[in-house]
Fold these 2 entries.
Entry 1:
Amino acid sequence: MTARLREIPYNYTSFSDREIVIRLLGADAWDVLNTLRGERKTGRSARMLFEVLGDIWVVRRNPYLEDDLLDNPKRRQMLIEALRHRLHEIEVRRQGNELVGQLLEAAARAVREFEAWFAGTASLRARILRRLAGVTRRDNISFDGLARVSHVTDATDWRVEYPFVVLTPNSEAEMAGLVAGLIELELTIIPRGGGTGYTGGAVPLTDRAAVINTEKLETMSAVEMAHLPGVEFEVPTIHCGAGVVTKRVMEAADAAGLVFAVDPTSADASTIGGNVSMNAGGKKAVLWGTALDNLVSWRMVTPDADWIEVTRLNHNRGKIHDVPSATFEIRRFAADGKTPKGSPEILLIPGSRFRKTGLGKDVTDKFLAGLPGIQKEGCDGLITSARFILHRLPAYTRTVCLEFFGHASEATPAIVEIKDYCDAHADVLLAGLEHLDARYVKAVGYATKAPRAARPNMVLLIDVASDNEVAAGEAASHIVRIANARGGEGFIAVSAEARRKFWLDRARTAAIAAHTNAFKINEDVVIPLPRLGDYTDGIDRINIELSIANKLKLLDALAEFFDSPQLPLLEDDDTVADPAQVEDKRQRARALIETVRTRWAEYLAKLDAPLPTDDPRLPPHPSPLTTFTALRDKHIRVSWKREVRRELHQLFIGREYTPVLEACDRIHKEVLKSRVFVALHMHAGDGNVHTNIPVNSDDYAMLAAANAAVARIMKLATDLGGVISGEHGIGLTKLEFLDAATIATFADYMKKVDPAHHFNKGKLQPGADLRNAYTPSFGLLEAESIILEASETGAIADSIKDCLRCGKCKPVCNTHIPRANLLYSPRNKILATSLLIEAFLYEEQTRRGVSLKHFDEFGDVADHCTICHKCKNPCPVDIDFGDVSIAMRNLLRKQGKKKFNPGTWASMAFLNATDPATIKALRKPLIEWGYASQRMGHTLFKRMGLIQAQTKNPPATLGRPKLVAQVIHLVNKPMPGGLPKKTSRALLGLEDASIVPILRNPAKLNEDSDAVFYFPGCGSERLFSQVGLATQAMLFELGVQTVLPPGYLCCGYPQTAGGQADKGEAITAQNRVLFHRVANTLNYLDIKTVIVSCGTCMDQLLKYEFEKIFPGCRLLDIHEYLMEKGVKLEGVSGEKYLYHDPCHTPMKTHAPMKVANALLGGGVVLSDRCCGESGTLAVSRPDISTQIRFRKEEEIRAGVAALGDGSQPVKLLTSCPSCLQGLARYSDDTNTEPDYIVIEMAKKLLGENWMASYLARVGNGGIERVLL
């Protein structure tokens, strides 16, 4: 890398200076600059020019900086004046140089355009709002940084231009009106679903782009039996809006005992519209084909803002290329979607046209005989809904996992053998055949099933299905024998759970790019099955060449190191190196490196040369092995560790040489970072090979090597009779490899249907490749890295850098509810956080002052998190955005930028208090009066009709709403009433912090009685004291000795989650010390269990190391403890139970639903999703809670419906105090009655008057007070 590669400041991207200059000033300017450099006429003037370009570049690619300057004319004018001042200084110094004058003219033009952009942007935003005002809601039109950065890229992270506006329409009916409006506004339209594309198909190529996000189009029908045109009998179908997540359709089909065949690996986040426009497929494509094969019909908006409805006739319910021809009926409608336009058109397409003969997948033909929408990648219209056929999977399925420990070339033929066997078997269907190579096996953390010490080199996962159970079992056994014959081992899963676990590793394949900060080049070629072995050989050859080239680069770096006469040595009073000996070792090291280099270079130069048959390293073989086959099969190795490192360690023995060896290891680590390799995983049954190359996007040499490898891979695929894309599409990344005739045919089609380029302007057209694309990168920063390291922003940036943008976090995220106007998924928040960190860095470097608005936006991202930590589990690279949000809140607090929130302040004051008098004083106004006032406000506002609009269609929550709206959010769901007037401690008379209470039932106490330590926490003790009392009452009834903490204590979790880490840590430390004192005082009690009745308390107490406080103890939720003791309800009739499992479930030892069903006698239905309370969220950000509650209310209603009609309310039970409060808010609207499981059990087992009875009994000789 030359020193002049990146001199433009504030460049937090993969672009070099050349690309930025060309982008902002034009290619001629770069040529002029190089000419001046050649004449050595650059210096201070060049640096000032680069400052100008750096300012423009960083602002124009960061919406947060753009918006800040738009809102602050004074700051904007200061920046413009600074740019012009630098240009003036260059003019003063140019001394009549004509070339410098040309550069100045280009730069002045760029500054004028930059200045004009702000006025133009403000004007166009106003026009957009006026034009679309009657078409969709105002908060469906987004210009903010979060919305724009969320839609600037897909799963690739390639970016070209930010969208000007993002639209999130509520319904299909709005689509044509939006398209018409955007056409009037001269904006290009980019359809967008889940953003999971791997080729940049939805990446805007122009800065005048409007992205239409279809995620709110979530309408999905029930499974319907339908008469299809030309089909004799009814077929099961399902109708979906474009925004329906693929996984939801799969689950709906599964619930009906059927299969939805369109199952890409991105099913957790991809949407139906994207599946149709890309013609997506997955593992089931081997049996039923891709999206097109399974489509009955689809609707789309055209570039004329009209409608098209395409219906397939004479559906064969199988692979479309198997029929002689496929017939489609195309009906056109006016903008209202109802008025027909012209006569229906019949499109007859030969079956052979859909895929290249002999291939199971092929999406390279973008024209596809003019079939609208399919494989067009959003270029000819916007898919709004579709109907699919569903399939019946045979009754018995077996999943087979095959592990091959020999070389892939020996194992790969097993794929063809398995496919041929299943195809020939009359009673068996091959329902899935997936492959992972050695690199993927390592990346996903695959646990070897065979009793071997090493990981396998290849893994195959196979689903075989049959209506004959014996046939399914025999087929699975035969497949295992196929593997055995090739040195592999096989394992068969029968149960649904075992089969699910077998497939889990396949879902984590995106983790291959974790070590390159989540950037990879992703290619999905299709190879004829008989040629898969040749393809893997070709990839092995590429990998061997790349590996040797990287190792030669390492040897060159080591040679340069040892060429230095001054080696780093450790010298002190005890150690002094002998100069003569050092020189001797240096020369020997150089000789070693040269010898090894010669040997490795010869391997690389003579890969196809035969090796001597008497080579002792080679096994007996009938024909001579080439260098390539010997390296491929690991008979000979190119090993840094064995051939170089080990020799250097033997050479440089001694304490004084430690720095030399450490330097060698550092060099190795640095060079290894730039090593390019190719990893494979396949939908092996149809030859669809995902060929992935992880790359550090800020390493130009690495990118060049990777791109060269891609070119070889594409040529290899086509030479073997394959195609360059099977399901990912073409987009930006593969256009250069598409043949000119195919591009020209598609261009002709686009001239016919969209001559004005209203949709996806430039895409799939000549030149629309990666030449203008960049990725964000902190990898080459210097001054910025110092700033990052010196602040907590560095730790935050580091914690999110591996995000793959795969969207697997979306389904579980409580702040990603599109139809509630809530689009704050971890994926989107990570993209926004990265941009805000860039904004902080830029403003810190320029010393113009960090905008306060950025801190507010940073806080807004952090606020939109319930800290449920659910996103970590599906994340392939284990990012927990709950932890990131906590770090962001802490950063804001430490910098004094966290805004005061009265709700948060009051909550924390109540939780932090430990003095009984203070708690009593706070409880009266906050709980008694506050809750009553809130309920009164709810009643009043509801009568006035101010609540319904807000809860029916929650508004967007970007920033804080106005005061009136905030008040309505605060009262739109009523708080619970009828709470106990006192805390549980006050009712028991145990508020003295100097005593340790021990509660026991004298009548049931015996030598075998358990002793437990019960930590009630704030919610179960101060707020819902009936929870703590019910827990104590049940333990009392069991004859358990219950030790309570001395005085009122908080676990420290609310403080930690709220961004007060120091306070949380202090509380934790104080409590741990206190509990050690308690344990010493009560050392005569054998406490083996610590009981909690709150999930956040459980999460925090897990950090207390209780096993060191009460040796051998364990933490259990009260409900788990009761289940283990055999306590349960029996003979309870007429009761119907929903169970809300808290986000912070306290049940860590047993499955929560298992516990709930065991305690309540079975029949309990799970009510999923967050209740919206989330600790203090409902009082600190009630606007966000309104959105979350929108989704939860849907879930409760569905649960009540599933339980059937009943005369009395359904009991909605939980095991979290905060959730109990949250669930109480739904009672009036859903006819449910919230309560705690332990309270319900106390009522049923101890009687309705259980509380008064318990207080009387425990107060009569049931309390021992031990002085601490």
Entry 2:
Amino acid sequence: MAFNRKEKLRDNIEAIRTVFTLEKQQRAATPQEREILSRFCGFGGLKCILNPAANLMDAAQWTKSDRELFPLTAELHRLIRDNSKDEREYKRYFDSLKSSVLTAFYTPPEVVAALADTLYDNGITPRRLLDPSAGQGVFISAFGAHAPGAEVMAFDKDLLTGKLLSFLYPQHKVRAEGFERIEKPFTGYFDVAASNIPFGDVAVFDPEYTGAGNYSRRAAAKTIHNYFFLKSLDTVRDGGIVAFITSQGVMNAREGAIRMEMLKHADLVSAIRLPNNLFTDHAGTEVGSDLIILQKNEKKQAVSETDKLFAGTAPDAAGFVTNTYFQKYPQRIVRTREKTDTDPYGKPAMVYLHEGGVTGIAGDMRKILSEDFANRLNVDLYQEKASRQVGQTSPPVSVHQERMPRYEPTPEDWREAGEVMQESERKFRDEHPPQPEDYPRGALKSEPVKKEEKPEPAPPVMDLYDLFNFTQEERRLAQSGQKKKQSGKKARRAAPVSRSLFDQPVVEKEQKPDAPPEQETVTPPEVQSMEMEAVYNAINWDTNPPINGFYETMAQLSPGQRERLRQENFATRQNRMDKAEDLPEQRTSQASVPVADGFEEERHRNERRLQEIREREEAEKIEAELMKPRPLMGKLEPHHKEGMMVADGNQVGYLKGITRYGATFHPLELNKAQQEKAELYITMRDSYQRLYIYEAEMHEENKPERAALNASYDTFVERYGRLNAKANVKFLLMDTSGRDMLSLERAENGQFIKADIFDHPVAFALNDVTHVDTPHEALSASLNRYGAVNLDYMESLSDNSKDELVERLKGQIYFNPLVDNYEIKDRFIAGNVAEKMENIFRWAANNEGNERMPEVEASLSALRDAMPRPITFDELDFNFGERWIPTGMYTAYIKHLFDTDVTISYSESIDEYSVKCREKNTRITDQYAVQGQYRKYDGINLLKHALVNTVPDISKSIGKDEYGRDIKVRDSEAIQLANAKIDEIRNGFTDWLNDQSPEFQQRLAEMYNRKFNCFVRPAYDGSHQDFPGLDLKALEKRYGIKEVYQSQKDCVWMLKQNGGGICDHEVGTGKTLIMSLAAQEMKRLGLAHKPMIIGLKANVGEIAECYRTAYPNAKILYATEKDFSPENRVKFFNNIKNNDWDCVIMSHDQFGKIPQPTDVQQEILQKELDSVEENLDVLRAQGKEVSRGMLKGLEKRKINLLAKLEKVEHAIKTRTDDVVDFKQMGLDHLFIDESHQFKNLTFNTRHDRVAGLGNSEGSQKALNMLFALRTIQERTGKDLGATFLSGTTISNSLTELYLLFKYLRPKELERQNINCFDAWAAIFAKKTTDFEFSVTNNIVQKERFRYFIKVPELAAFYNEITDYRTAEDVGVDRPEKNEILHNIPPTPQQAEFIEKLMQFAQTGDATILGRLPLSETEEKAKMLIATDYARKMALDMRMINPEKYEDHPDNKASHCAAQIAEYYKKYDAQKGTQFVFSDLGTYQPGKWSVYSEIKRKLMEDYGIPANEIRFIQECKTERARKAVIDAMNEGKVRVLFGSTSMLGTGVNAQKRAVALHHLDTPWRPSDLSQRDGRAVRKGNEIAKFFANNKVDVIIYAVEKSLDSYKFNLLHCKQTFISQLKSGAMGARVIDEGSMDEKSGMNFSEYMAILSGNTDLLDKAKLEKKVAALESERKSFYKDKSGSTWKLESHTKKLEENNGHIAKLTADYATFTSRAQTDEDGYYRNPVRLDGLTATDAKSVGTRLQEIAKNAETGGEYTPIGELYGFPILVKTEKSIREGVEVKQNRFFIEGAYKYTYNNGQLAMSDHKAAATNFLNALERIPKQIEQYKTENAKLEKDLPTLREIVGGTWKKEDELKQLKSEVAVLERKIQLELKPPEKQMQTAAEDAPQENISIARPMKTENKGIRI
């Protein structure tokens, strides 16, 4: 049966329609509907559903073959849209269908039946079946035929398929989610796992795998098919079977580690390769697949030979890599024939086919399976393990329940929790002692009571009370904390059967015992095979939320205590039964005693008593019914959660099984006092939840609900005490919202008081400003409330009229006619002023004579004055591929360059250019093409790379491996040639622009100015602010701050106006006070409701103290370490939420523990996922059909993105409590101190080979910050929402600017068409690609964003939201930095090692350095290793080998110690202090380090006391750290050592600092700045009064090392960054340098620097350029020689074709001159054959056919006749076919060439056609002439281009000559500087010791250093 796409699509639509119908009607499927559902076959092979089908016009984009399916596809869209509640659900449905196009190839039922039948025949009948990828359910059906009662769990990620399965198999557990969601308790649970599993390199998120220590399990999580195998093996029990049909890629993958992991605890039962046409009839596709069957064997000892074959791969005879198992056992391949063809992705592959169809395939499978099962299936192991699990029908946890907060009290806490209720219980029992009537109902009756027939109720959800067989009374006692009374009475009855946690509840029956009680034996309750300890260990708190404290209680008990509890429970139950048996006897005896009133009175009394008993029994029956779980009758409110205590009717209970439709109410058995307390608590809690939710969502005060909350709280406190009272805490925590309720009180002065929510809203800001004193304050209040200048409102607040306000605020507000209102200066003259001015000019032209024109003129004048100077075209620097330039310009340029029609389009969503070329020419195929070994990269391919500034990764083969596969390496020469041609394309664009008309250039410049050069940063003047509430006296007393700096006022004003920004103030300029001022002002003015400050752990305490000092009355919440302990964290988060804080302060690490809102995370992810869909739309719009490869790639990206988000969410959840998230806390502005700590934000880039970009994956810390900022920005609807504060916002590279903008300005980036890093880099950065020779003489490619262009505009974009100030700008009273470069000559050991380093750099032989040879990984990082060794060598030789090398008096440590001692003595009277920094050789206790070595020298050589020298690494706690800092400020510690990370920030120990020593140079300018800031900062008293207000900063540099070079490079970088920040950059382009910590230095510069000769360094740089150019020239001429050969070939071909044309023309002329025509003008056919006189067609045709049958010419051309003088020839040709010789005669007519028709073969069945064969051949001559002419036209078109290439010269020849001459000049200079060989060298040697001695005295002025 062929695959009928139309029929299958119709079946699918009807099945989906049926699913929606059943879902709406909430009923089961009828047999007819089940038949419709069973015909569903998925959408594999129905790629048409990917096409748009919204309207009829979309059909035009469909391919012709698919167009017949358009109506059905449109119907499918309508069906799903009509049955979706919103667009989001519709998209979810269709996304799942689209995903299934790749994977939903359902297995033919016959094949699955063959598997299930054969397993059944061999004794395998599963009681528990797992299908992890169920699809249509064919595996469920096949196995169900033999095991109809089996417990089945089926997964399918497709939403619609999951729903369909649930209706098709309602008796089974069907889960519409990924298999990775299966819970841990199902480990080792199933008998059989069988399925057709998905295949692909898509990731799956499973914490057990992604975080596993085992490499194979981690790797399996990245490939879904491998994951399914390993995870399924986890889920089946020992002896269980895993049988999967999967792609051939599982067994053919070269990496065998995962296959070996499968077999670690499993045996291979069978592996069968199935034919490619298996799915043809059912899914319309041919794809290779395998059936793999494994049997779990946990006791497996060793790997068998079969296992090794299964794990291995090798090339087969045809050269295809195939699993060695099938090479050994080819009979395990089901096929009737095989051939070499291609797989679905177009790659060569061996294809197997079976001509017997599905039936034949199934038959062959049965035979192979029967044989394999007989040999390898261990039925005994399967049956043995199965028998142990009889009776266990479900796993030990429930699933599908919401996660609830976990609380773990101790047993003592549990007992205390019920104190209040216990007292009520005791009082109640004293007043109402037990009566005989209180015994169980039915006790007076001897006969069994007939049970009323009722339908079986739905089983309630079981909990752990059921596990221990607790009665209602025992549950009540457990919940109230009371102990059970011990019973000494012997048990009489048999123990009840212990039930599993998930057994269905048994309805109790009262029945008469079969034997007297005395004869019954008593045994303790049988413990199930599953230990109770294992049950508790397996409890999943996500799916089993705490129910009234029971879980917590039981989890705290030891296994022994739980066992005793069960025994006590058993004894108590027996005691109760004994009492029940004795009771009827007592009552009977009482009833038989005569009384004085006579028999009649006794009878009436007995009747009344019996009536009372009946009434009581009826009441008890009703009460028992009421105590059963039931649907919640009351309203399910939004705040209701699983396990929450609620009141329903007149009962109190808890909720379980909450869905959007309702919940199950579980009543609690409470006495009157308990019920009253619980109901009062529930009323209070519901009032609180309703109040908070309403105000948070509506931003409107709810006074009635607040009054209700106060009333219920007051009543509760009056009767039971404060919520946080010890007895109440335990009671409240029994409710899942108890923690929220405890936060309704906060501690103040040792007393609990009401939280702010009782008094006013805390979820939003209340505007209660009623009066202001100045117009400026009125303006701020107006901006706060209305976001604009509202003069009416301002007039109502102040004592001024509107006109007075306008006059007083002149220069501060301007009238904007576009909004018909005033705007403040900082908003009006800001942003894109060019566009604003154009729009106002247009308004003025249309409104002449308007009364407001004078105000408009004033506004225009202000804008005109503020306009940035337009940048001219000549000043601009363009990059080819800038996204803002219209693609039409690129198209025009490329048409000019390639001289053919080319179209370029751009997709913003995927940041990708697409190029279409209708006809390629030699410019594309030759001039701009590169031939690699495996493929050709033509001009179109290189153009795509040029547009996005990348280079193709071209590879070549350098030999074969052991399997005959190519060993591929990067083809450096081809890559370099490709790079040169890409550069030519890119650079040619600028030349083309320069050749355009002035008008064109002007338009382009205007476009750029409107886009980028249009921003104005207002001059923020905050001098008018007076900061109400600021305590300057306290600040002066504590910090010496007499007034607020003007810079601080300006910065705070900017932050208030913009709602955030960047405070880029240098270290020590008062950023802490800026945070305090801005936060308090924002709060005061209502610009922020609840601001938060986060800082470094080391600084955050000081920030809080500064805030408290500045604003002593402010309500600040400061997070201590104790607040963030696990037991207090939840309470702290609720404290943030429920109180109206002026500011919340915490550390970066603590901030990371705040749960981020999942909806924001989902939104960020959804944008990525949406772009995937948009990618497909873009491809379709370009007229491209979506190929399977495209779809696979996009789907893979989509799934991996989902897995990545799941991983992120899991990482957040495991580090945080599932409580209040960031959004619920109401925080609406963040102040991030030291914001550069969050710079590692994730970003996407295609420039993965570019150095210096950092880790694109980013850090979790930065991602959390992005989530928080997006939450705030989403709430406000605008950019910013945060303030970044740092003196080093750009710490290393200008590329960090992009990440700042991504955090703070997402909307503005979007306006500039920048939606990713690559789009930003295309505008502002230039990538350099350097090619240099490595030590192995290979060309190495190094890429880097080294140059930045359009720097002024980039700076303007940064400065628009930034307040940048240096210490000089601020006027901070701090000492001046006096930098000293202290040069040190190398010691003999260092000199020797420098030579070794140079040899290592040249040869790559690591043994020269005394270490093991480089590994393969280290080879790639060789220069980084060399750089690292050079750094260590410069610091101290013992850093390389402490045992081999010794101390030296001239090493860096000795010089540094001498310098420290000098400063120590010089400032001894003032107790001057010094900092020593080094990131290498830091202090480690018990180990040698440079720190300890210098300390030893200071102690032994200079007598400095040990207690005055400290290492910051010794301080393990914050207290110890603070003590050292205080001791340094007091002069008790005089020298402090540390690294940049530990000592560079958060250390205010500058009071006595006189010197700072850099033993090494850090990698980043920011690190150097942070180091220097420890001493060069305000508050340095000793430097100010005793050191000429200077701090000496000494940089130690060993000559011939990298020290000086690195320091100078760092200085240059810092200069560029500072100029960009200040906007003082004169140039439009800057160069960042080329060395970084990731790759080290390049080889040539490294060699030159180690030589110590600066001329050699210059020479090395020139030689590097020369080498690269020569290599490029070589590639150019190599490419040119290919073009020369092609030109010769074209010319030769042209000449040959012209010769052919001439001969053909002559033959045709001869023919036409001789030819005769009939009356109709057709040529006659006068064929004359030898020996035949007749010329009629029949005779001639018959004779020719005879000749064709019988002639034998021996391979020679034999004449047999003529036509118009042209000889007719026949030739006999022989060939071998299938081993038999075959003879064939071919016929020709001869002219200049031998012409044929029908390839010389006669028509053997048509006489006329045979006779006219030769006439037809002559008539075809003009067509052949035309073919040659067409080919000539193409050749002639290419000839000019080829001649241009061949005649062209290399354009960089002059540049190469110039560089070579410069090298020659340097060489001569170096030779002249060399000393004469013998004599002078000897003299130099004699003088050397004296020089060394003088240099070794660093105290001398001339050797002290070079001041810079």
